[in-house]
C-alpha cells in the first residue's frame, strides 16, 4: 500500500513540474495573464495534494524510524 502512495506522490510531483514549466513558458512568451493565473492555481493545488500524499506515505512507512 505504501508503494502505491509513493508512486502516486511521484506522479503528482511530476505534474507539479510540468505545470510550473508551462507557466514559466507562458510568462516568457508574454501569454495571457488569465492562463498564467489558472496555471498558478493548478500548481498550488497540485503542491497541496503532493504534501498530503508525502505525509500519508511517511505515516504509512513509519517515517523512516527503525522498527
Word description of this protein:
It is a single chain. This protein has two helices and no strands. The protein is mainly alpha-helical.
Task: Set down the secondary structure blueprint.
Layout: H1 2-28, H2 33-61
Helix pairs in contact: 1-2
Notable features of this structure?
67 residues; mainly alpha; 2 helices
Structure summarized in a few sentences:
The protein is 84% helix and 0% strand. With 67 residues, the chain is mainly alpha-helical.
What about the largest sheet? Answer: none
CA-atom Rg in angstroms: 15 Å
Please mark out the parts with pLDDT under 50 across 5 or more consecutive residues, or reply none.
Answer: none
Find the count of extended strands (DSSP E, 2+ residues).
Answer: 0
**For the residues shown, what is the average pLDDT?**
88
One letter per element, helices H and strands E, the order comes to HH
Q: What is the percentage of strand-forming residues?
A: under 5%
The total count of helices amounts to 2
- Shape descriptor reads elongated
Question: What class, by secondary structure content?
Answer: mainly alpha
Distance between the termini: 18 Å
* Helix content range: over 70%
